[in-house]
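Hey,
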Amino acid sequence: MTEAEWLDETDPTKMLEFLSSSGSPRKFRLYACACCRIVWKRLEFAICQHIVEVSERYADGVATEDERLAVCIMNNSMLKGVSRTNRDPRVNAFLASRATAYHNDATYVSAIEAQNNSHRLIADENWQTRAGLPFSEILRDIFGNLFRPVAFDPAWRTSTAISIAEGIYNDRAFDRLPILADALQDAGCENADLLNHLRGEGPHVKGCWALDLVLGKE
């Protein structure tokens, strides 16, 4: 895949296959979680939403291995009570959320499983518009431009920038990303790719490459 193809690709599965040998488990897991959050209201069972929340915390080393295993066991137990014969839509909700936590080392395979089952929860052809966010754009938000990585100067990581970035990440307050861009610019950052991404409309999710750079996450 070339840089132009990566920037224009609309098939998220092709993008994930390209990332298969280079993507980090954390980012694959957060992409899977982001897929589930696109269809958040369709994950109508408390366990489905809870497992995604645990998976996000697990990706950042906050939730424990025991917590991950516990939600997987609960999910599997409830899934057994749902009929697969008639392909009950709830099956997709259970499978999508389970994919975020099923493996302790997330891969592109689990990301594809979460993506595809989230996709199936939207029945009509306008699922991207109705759900709000296309998967391919989320992948670019998380992984950035693989062909043009930004070299982050530690001098830009001021206490102000860190404080703003942590607040955005913890609160999922991505509308505050332009404020972070201003703080980075005040610290001497003039990298157009980084600043434009933070000031762009998004979509932005947990795992956003630009926010991760500030926070030192991989």
